[in-house]
Sequence to fold (203 residues):
Amino acid sequence: MELSQFLAFNAALLVAMASPGPALLVLTQTAISVDRRSAIWTGIGLGSMAALWTLAALLGLDLLFALFPASYLVMKTLGALYLIWIAWGTWKTAKAPLGAVPRVTPRRAFRRGVTVNFANPKSVLFASGVLVVIFPPDLGAAQIAFVALNHLMMEIAVYSVLAVALSRPRARRAYQAAKTHLDRLTAAVLGGLGLRLLLDRTP
Fold:
């Protein structure tokens, strides 16, 4: 494994994290409407599951999905339903004033982050596509562990920075001014992603 391959993987990872999706939306909404600690633990959960998907891709889990399409369909369906459930909860509390949303324990915030990224098994297919292009197929056990650990550290670092930035008083005041509309927009996007995942029959 060469340094250029390592840097290319991190660049691809940053682009993927910056693209709008369930993980970024949930992290943003948690940081602004709940609190910084909950957002950081949500980010740790998101990063942990994403790193596990990368580890799974390195170990060939995408081949398991290809051999057993039913397992992929079950995971995708459960994931879609979970995103729709989050969307419904966000929509219901859209009119609640900032601070009315109860704080959550670190364990619950971590579990939510894990579940959100577990909810999309396409992540492992994306990871495998990136990994195939960047890394040679004969990575050793130590190299595989290093790539997965690097992924984990990158995700935690980026999400922690976002959590701190978005939970600052200025960001929360700006959010409060349009909370109902922003929460409903977030709910609509999450619900739409869930429905698309639920109705998508492509492998």
